[in-house]
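Format notes (please read before filing issues)

Several people have asked whether sequences and structure tokens are stored in separate files. They are not. Every record keeps both together, in the order shown below: the sequence lines, then the token lines. Line labels are part of the format and must not be stripped during preprocessing.
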Amino acid sequence: MSDFIITCGSPADLKKEHFERIGVEYICFHYMIGGKSYPDDLGESMPLAKFYKMMEDGADTSTSQVNIDGFIEFFSKFLSKGKDVIHLELSSGLSGSYGSSCAAAEALRKKYPERKIYVVDSLGASSGYGLFVHTLAKLRDDGKSIDEVYEWAQANRLKMHHWFFSTDLKYYVRGGRVSKTAGFVGNLLNICPMLNMDYMGRLIPRAKIRTKKRAILDIVNRMEKHAQGGLDYSGECFISHSACYEDALEVKRLVEERFKKLDGEVLINDIGTTIGAHSGPGTVALFFWGDERVD
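Then the structure lines:
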């Protein structure tokens, strides 16, 4: 039995049953919608369909990261039982939660000097962050030590690719990513922005694709270009979406049609409330192991 615990945050966007199956513990972020606060508990407090419907109807949203005290309480549950901890955190390029988790770990090292507490900046989000932690759990199950898992995570985190496109620019306008004029023109011309995570874990626009059909094809083409082994990619692939399951299903179909050596079926997840509060409904994201992100 492993003598260490792998943990992460709820914005890893895996289902509760998935976390339970791979033996990973998660801490919930929080969000506000319609003036009320909820935990980002994978859709338990509020079904995700209701959350995205409220956004479509104009409800304002905001999110809050876990503070230092929250991380101290979370980590202490495992350290007090004699377990070491390796924690994979949401990208520091998107949230200050990495800094809070590091501060909590430093404080707890003084209280539990005999325990190991590692914190890794995933430089990722949503189910790319989820695929990362899923892979760390497999390494643990293969008998790797906490030190080996930590070293692997640090060495490979920039090889996790995150590609996103959105079919509705109004949420980018609300978040200040595009101007109102650009958003209006983009929606008029059916522009779907293509974005990815850069080497600092920030979400960066990469292209403007006209029509959703072309965006779906483009995102799979990018996987072919960047995946380890190209069309011979033999790793796992996750997809996440925000209230546009049919679009995610089409991306899955094309990926499985093109990449014949995938490790298992492409897994489709929901984009949870922490990420979805900023991306809005109509976003599809594709995640896989690829070449190292250098820009």
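For reference, the curators noted about this record: DSSP finds eleven helices and 13 strands in the chain. The longest helix spans residues 126-141.
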